[in-house]
Model the fold of this input.
Amino acid sequence: MLVIRQQQMAAFAQAAVKSFDDRVVIHLNKFFPEQCGTLGEPQLREFIRYGVERANTYGIVAERDVCKYIDLMAVFGRDFDTDPRLRWAGVILGTKQNFGANIQHLIAAAQDHLRRL
Done:
């Protein structure tokens, strides 16, 4: 019988986190080169970790949705969710509904906000 020890599970989890971070680094560099150009690799990875933590506080845990949340951070700023100029973001994120629907609603509101600028 195969037995997976706690240390092995922790190593698997750590590898999954690194893999996600690596993919998001590539994604951000591709779609947000100007924002990424001002950060070094360590700062970019810290930005991603911060985004993951912030997204998780709103119940956003699916990788794709977390990546979208981080995209919004790249566009509107790292603390866009609490920025008083972007009240719509906090209102949407504070809504307790399907979190996948929340992120879609958030993206739509962000696009609407950008069109009005």
User: Anything to note?
Assistant: Residues 14-116 form one domain.
